[in-house]
Amino acid sequence: MEAYKRIVFQELPDAFCIQLLRFSNQGKKMKTIVEYPESPKVEQVMEPETDDVEVISEEQYHLVAVISHQGNTITSGHYTVCALRSGEWFYLNNAQVSKIFGLTARNQEAYVLMYERDTTKKSNAATTTLHSHPNQS
Fold first, then answer.
1. In terms of residue numbers, what domain contains 37?
2. Is 36 within the bounds of a domain?
3. CA neighbor of 137 nearest in space, from 106, 110, 112, 109
4. 23-27, 45-49, 131-135: least confident range
5. Torsion of CA 11, 17, 23, 24, to 10 degrees
6. Domains contained in the chain, number
7. Nearest to 82, CA basis, from 107, 54, 61, 56
8. I need a labelling partner for 69 at 20 to 30 A (CA). Which of 2, 34, 94, 96 fits?
9. b/e burial code for range 60-95 (CB count within 10 A of at least 16 → b)
């Protein structure tokens, strides 16, 4: 089963975060793999409350950080970060920092995704959707 989430912005921000709900109501970790875009295109629309929307502008964003949770419950575990700095990805785990490949950053069990507006490109494509695959862990 696939699930889709649509987020509508009335005004496009310079940066935004997406928090993925990784814990059940009982506090147990859900290890569902979520596919998320590295460079989503986001639309600003005129009438977000209706199905008949008019696109005012589109902007390209890029992934700059992925926060992951290692552990099995909401009350235990450890957080790590993969972050982009000067075009290179780094893995941050407490005081340890190591350089990694971008693909490694995208393969994390994402908990929080952080995006920034790409000021080098102008976009002309559609809104991005996150896809959830609950059968993968």
1. 15-47+54-116
2. yes
3. 109
4. 131-135
5. 10
6. 1
7. 107
8. 2
9. bbbbbbbbbbeeeeeeeeeebbbbbeeeebbbeeee
Residue 131 lies in a domain: no
| Predicted pLDDT at 126 | 40
d(CA 83, CA 115): 11
Strand boundaries in 20-133, DSSP class E: 33-35, 41-45, 55-70, 78-85, 88-93, 96-100, 110-122, 130-133
Tokens at 78, concatenated: 């450890």
- Three-state DSSP state, 106: helix
Each residue of 39-91: pLDDT tens digit? 887 766 666 566 666 667 778 899 999 998 888 888 888 989 999 999 999 99
Query: Among 40, 39, 43, which residue's Cα sits nearest to residue 11?
Result: 43
Q: Does residue 15 carry a pLDDT above 60? A: yes
The answer to whether position 6 is within a domain reads: no
Region at 53 (left for phi over 0; alpha for psi -120 to 50; beta for the rest)? beta
C-alpha span between 44 and 109 (Å, rounded): 29
